[in-house]
Known about the structure:
Blueprint: H1 2-38, H2 53-72, H3 88-106
Amino acid sequence: MANLEGLVRIVSELRAERTNLATQLRHVDAALSVLGKLNGGSSYTKPSRTLSAAARKKISLAQKARWANRAANGQATSKTKPKRTISPATRRKIAAAQRARWAKVKAPSKKAA
């Protein structure tokens, strides 16, 4: 009987803990709901802004003017270094050195014998 009483006590404690956790979750959900509304709402999405054809054309012309101005000032070319290449002789040297390294790795070691 003592075993059964202990089991009943444990079950009642677990139910009380579950009730407390459910209450805490409701509080957290309420807080998130309030914060979401303050931040513009996570479920609310802004409607997309529709521009008139005239506005799009105006923006396009302004951007083209900026590009033309940049090209006229010589800023159109990027200042990246040209791609470097390796001469065939250097490639052969590198390949020979790599073959030598692999031969050394694949060679049977003297300790194994």
